[in-house]
Write a structure and sequence with these properties.
With 283 residues, this protein is of the alpha/beta class. Helices cover 37% and strands 19% of the residues. The chain has two domains: 143 residues, 3-Layer(aba) Sandwich (D-Maltodextrin-Binding Protein, domain 2), CATH 3.40.190; 121 residues, Periplasmic binding protein-like II (D-Maltodextrin-Binding Protein, domain 2, 3-Layer(aba) Sandwich). Strands 2-1-3-12-4 form a five-stranded mixed sheet. Strands 8-7-9-5-10 form a five-stranded mixed sheet. Strands 6-11 form a two-stranded parallel sheet.
Amino acid sequence: MLTMKNKLLLLAASLATAVQVLGGSITIKGSDTMVVLAQKWAEAYMQKTPGAKVQVTGGGSGIGFAALQNGQTDLATASRPIKAKETENCIKSFGKRPTEYKVALDGITIYVNPVNTVTQLTVDELEGIYTGKIKNWKDVGGPDIPITVYSRENSSGTYEFFKEHVLKGKDFAASAQTQQGTAGVVQAVMKDKGGIGYGGVGYASGVNRLKIAKTKGGTYFEPSEEAVLAESYPLWRYLYIYVNPAVNTGEVSSLLKWIRSDEGQKLVSEASYYPLPASLRAK
């Protein structure tokens, strides 16, 4: 239980943070998946709001949550929901649960080299590839080429989502090659005939994206807007922004509301992600 002294210290810290935001830049930090999208939001918001300053950096969802907890960012972008331990750390730091906002949708996309003749995989086949059980493309109907597995760093929300929903908690193959950021994964796959990678649909340029089915014999879906909104594509997810409730006032509150408005959601499409359904947008 918090003592009165600790409650007063938390209140003072929150007020100091709020004053700091009002007097300077709004900082956004976290998900590499969302960096390009967040930069679009920042640039458009600053153009329409004289005097507003918004700074965006990446590093991964885990990095964003750590920065939020430590008071080093105003907004944390994340490509996965916050974990219980991260919530607990924020409560210890500023006395409240962070406020969660859904801000876009995404389909985690499986990238392969353009020369690869494989066009579809099941989630189980993906698990086999990424845990090292399946080592050659011929084992999933492709050419006789060894598979090179490319992955994200473990601070990435996309890494966490993929491990939970595809690997079912199992470890990645020891041979998996970690890349810094989704752009790095795409670049590696573009140069490697046997390469496979994963990441946000907004980065799927210069590579082929595979159709995915939940099970063998099931329907294969591309990570299209229609399939993601219908939850037919197996690897769909929300993209999030988290904020300390004490900071969620003034310009920060205005920015968050604008991001979830029709105007802000239009930029989601321009970044090749998928806008929120109308029921989740700011009124």
